[in-house]
## 1
Amino acid sequence: MKNHTLGRLGVSRIGLGAMGMSAFYTGAGKSDDEAVRVLQRAVELGVTHIDTAEAYGPYVNEELVGRALRGRRDEVVLATKVGLVSHSGGSIPDSSPANVREAVDGSLARLGTDRIDILYQHRVDPGTPIEETVGALADLVKQGKVRYIGLSEASVETIRRAHQVHPIAAVQSEYSLWSRDPESAILPALRQLGIGFVPYSPLGRGFLTGSLRSLSDLDDDDWRRTNPRFADGNLERNLRIVDEVGAVANEVGATPAQVALAWLLAQGGD
């Protein structure tokens, strides 16, 4: 497994996002024991970057990850996120300093750890200036509860403002063969600032695996049913994309998922 750096953290170039094990996708939460085995097997295979969030469930995904990593915490770079759950009953998103502090204490307890390697603001909170949020996160870094700070789905302006308050180690945005929006502005800005990039949903939320051909393949409560790209009619038109990926995969003796991941890894070199 090749490695990369986020801030000063060495991480495997392929990480594992645990969200779908507990929330939003078909089959989520139906077999925690199997999810634990998947997480542990990933670590055995060299995956050192594990990603979760308090909003996944909420809470239960962090508990799941904590259970899977018990006794192996020091083998991984552990990332979680705050800001999409309000602990005061306020509006969502909530990245107020008070909410951030309370959220982090809860995440530490659920994860069974004394520090979070990368803590992301899950989504920008229009009600709290980014400077206040990052200031609170910086205080948590000083306290040793957080090692590095990240942002998720933030604009270039927000990233620059945040980076002036405290160094930002990483930015998460959706990025894949199917979703390439970060290429126009986000990626150039991150290169300029020396900030790492973590692409989430590299398989197009399962679409690029080639296994999703109809909405009937999804549970009734699957989040993708509400996503315009998967809406009836759009899904059928978008299948032409995955069929092209599948054709390439057949030529090289790979799966569509392997081709999609290979393309994504090539964007970072090596």
Note: The chain is about 35% helix and 15% strand.
## 2
Amino acid sequence: MAKSNIFVGLEIGTHKICVVVGDAKADGSIKILGVGQAPSRGVRKGEIVDFETAQTCLQEALVRAEDRSDVMVRKVWLAITGPHLESVNNRGVLRIPDDQSEITEDDIEEVKEQASNVAIPPDNIFLHRIIRHYWVDGQEKVQNPVGMLGRKLEADYHIVHGIRNRVQNTIRCLREFPLEVEDVVFGPIAAAQVVLNREARSQGALLMDIGGGTTDYVLYEDGAIAASGSIGVGGDHITNDLAVVLKIPHSRAERLKVEHGSVLPAAGGSDDYIRLEGDATFDGVNVEREVLHGVIAARMEEVFNLVRKRILASGASLDRVAAGIFLCGGFEG
């Protein structure tokens, strides 16, 4: 039986659930057959906190994806996020036996296991072990050492791990449908494969995926991942800030953020104020645009500083981000 070329990606976010069905072509491209989205409930900071409610939302997104793609979804690639996910870089070193003439696939697997020999919390599991660079007898950045002659093989890996139960709770939710999880992928690493081309990764780039409850990031240096992680601050925090500072309902704060929000200083002019009309439960108010932008800018400055601190604490540097910072994420109701 021929192997199916249909792949399905699923992300259960704080604000929306998205199912994407694609057909992988021989040239490596993917044709999108259908997308199903639904507002997300029962999810907090990218993690399920109410199984039944989240399953109802997932069912809605799944049905829409199946209808639009004419594909019955049975297997998915699951993108996850959450502040519990952490990463570390580690090197494995392997001495090649004297009676062996060249480096083999088995040697690659062994050096990978050695690089994965890092101390992680007992309740955590490995999600990714991604190669950064190989060295053969001191020769740097070997692309593929299999078949090369050498006495010492070294390999740097980027390792992502997270709390076992939090990962498995999401998988368990999907099995109720039933859906089989092909694999679990850390969200920003998947996003970087689409957003960042090879040149950007080679020059050095920071991708930040700003969601409702989290901000995820991945940093590339010399074409390889240098750092990745997730902080528990996102767009919802901006909405809450606006609701508190401006003393307006949460729903009005969200709409104000989406329709008029900016991190740039408000320019003076005739539209210095934004009128929020009243209703049965709200008297209405004039919002000063400068205050609106100032609240948003303050929270976003915090987000960037938190990401910066996490990256520097990992031992990586932001000095070589020549391609710049790439922002993605966001939600349309």
Note: The radius of gyration is 23 Å.
## 3
Amino acid sequence: YRTHGRNYSIETSGSVDKKKHTKDNRSVKVDKPRNSHFSTLLIQFFLLTKIKTSVSFRSLSKMLVVSSVYLKTQSASPSYQTGILWIKKIGYYELYKPKERADDWIIIADESIGIGQEKVLVVLGIRRKDVDFTRPLKLKDLTPLLVKSKERWTGEDMAQQLKIVKDEIGGILYAVTDSCCTLKKGLRESEINHLY
């Protein structure tokens, strides 16, 4: 198993021997993404387990180490930092992938999320045709459209960002937000209908 950049193998006696990192990991011919030490299957398993369950990154990393020892595969296991990086890459992809242009988008916006001294403006969207009125919305139903942070947001700043979103996705039927005055002003200036 691998931890803190070092590979170890556990013999049947229970002793731990240090292994060389690159030679042992790269000698196995498996399907891997370019510049990755881990197989595509392992990456998919890690990501799906993290996304579909409430297990922490650290616990998931340790679980893979235990599985590797139990199954006697002696393969490298990703650290929890590697798992966090993979999740961030998925988020980055979802945020910046080309969005479908249509005239029936509904957006949900909020700027009250704080990170240190900064406030984050988050805009999520869903097409009207994709709304299932038989159940509440889930996060997986929504498409991330904008994530920006600033120390202080004004109505003009929000209007500018909302116009960028509008240009990217097409028409917005309405926006659902709380009663934040700067957000209401931004929606008014960008000519987007507002619902509480």
Note: The chain is about 40% helix and 25% strand.
## 4
Amino acid sequence: WLTKVEYGSPRWQVSFAVAQKDCYSSYTDGATNTETCFDGGSYYTTSKGSDRSGSSSNYALRAYWQPEETGIIPALQVGYDWSTVDDDDNAGSTEATAAWMMGFMWRDAFIDGNTAGIAIGSRQHATEVHAETSSNDDDADDNFVWEAYYDFKVSDNITVTPAIFGGEDTYDGNSNGSDDIFGALVKTTFKF
């Protein structure tokens, strides 16, 4: 289930959400044992905390604010998420996760009708890991991700958006030795 409470106006808003994800005990499906739980695998940013199985309680705080007039002061959006997991008591099982973000957006940036934006944050990652030995205790390396974009309005019907994005310590479970990412894209939107 998911419950969300929000309060605000067209210029600002705050919200809080709670979700409970339940899973059933392992059951046998033919010759294999299967769980109904979500296993995040490499979704979390620590090699020791990459296993997430078990029911979880999940929470999210959000807020945004925008100025009355466009200008140098940007619209602001912030968010913080955290979860507690009923782990399976195996070494390395994720017991808690967290994520955060901040976004800044400037309307009419440089030219009327254009928009610029920057976002920074930390993708969801294990923050508490079950440890059977002290050598396995790992609070998870935090990670940092970012993106920047500019919406250039070519006409009333066409918008071109170049964007760049990157991240540090974004463990992905691969053995290529690199936990950093960088990329770019150009999106064209047509409205009819």
Note: DSSP finds no helices and eleven strands in the chain.
